[in-house]
Design brief:
five-stranded mixed beta sheet, globular, Nucleotidyltransferase, domain 5, alpha/beta, 2 domains, 248 residues, 25% strand
Length: 248
């Protein structure tokens, strides 16, 4: 089974091509140009290098969120388009699980691989998207202890300690994490950036478990509406209230 994987949940994205769960190649997308401008050329180059055509893709996995609103929307759109044109199966992979699994892959050769991993992404407004995972086997998927949700750092950090923590949410909340007894993974670690090859491995396991998405389910996992939508709704509600007050 030919598998294409899209990881565009962060600023620096990547794409991977696999066959029967074996990685064939991975291409990084530069952060300064964003995911949209390079995604299709990267997919085309990967397919040509091995060589395959888009119609031979049988499984598409994409990092479903939470993460970059634009990046998640792009990946979901490509997944819907490819399923509609080729009939391929589609799997949505939790983006925070990709981050956590990256820590396991990086530290698997150490004497004591991490047993509990917390992944956090900055959600702004003093909040993070966070999830907690447990390592049960180096060769198997992580077990979800606390599913991805919008979190208040101080309270949630205290609940999940001890654990190793990874993700760009540490840029703002590293002191809070340390004070709660968590172990922040250094920003120099490659695990801070979610990788398509890691997403591909998780997606393959989910496909084997038949956790496939129906067309209506191929949507980003935002967990919170984009800020522009929230502002629009607030202004609309204020305008309605103002008109109601004027007419009374």
């Amino acid at each position: 089974m030919l598998q294409l994987t899209l990881e565009t949940s962060a600023l620096a994205g990547s794409v991977a091509l696999s066959s029967a769960g074996r990685l064939l190649g991975e291409t990084a997308l530069s952060a300064d140009r964003r995911n949209a401008s390079e995604l299709f050329p990267a997919i085309d180059a990967l397919l040509r290098a091995h060589p395959y055509t888009p119609r031979q893709i049988e499984l598409l996995c994409f990092s479903q969120g939470p993460g970059s609103f634009t990046g998640l929307r792009i990946a979901a759109t490509v997944a819907r388009m490819l399923q509609a044109t080729t009939g391929c199966a589609v799997v949505g992979v939790p983006s925070l699980q990709v981050l956590a699994q990256g820590v396991v892959d990086e530290m698997s050769a150490t004497p004591s691989p991490p047993q509990r991993i917390a992944a956090i992404v900055d959600a702004r407004r003093g909040q993070v998207y966070g999830a907690l995972y447990a390592l049960e086997s180096l060769n198997g998927p992580l077990r979800t202890l606390s599913a991805a949700a919008l979190r208040t750092p101080g309270d949630w950090f205290a609940e999940i300690s001890p654990a190793i923590m990874v993700g760009d949410g540490l840029r703002t909340h590293v002191d809070t994490a340390q004070n709660a007894g968590l172990t922040p993974l250094s920003a120099d670690s490659g695990a801070w950036v979610p990788r398509a090859r890691v997403c591909a491995a998780i997606g393959w396991h989910l496909a084997e478990e038949r956790k496939l998405l129906q067309p209506t389910e191929i949507v980003p996992a935002y967990l919170r509406p984009p800020e522009c939508e929230e502002v629009f709704e607030q202004r609309r509600a204020a305008a309605i209230a103002k008109r109601a007050g004027a007419s009374s």
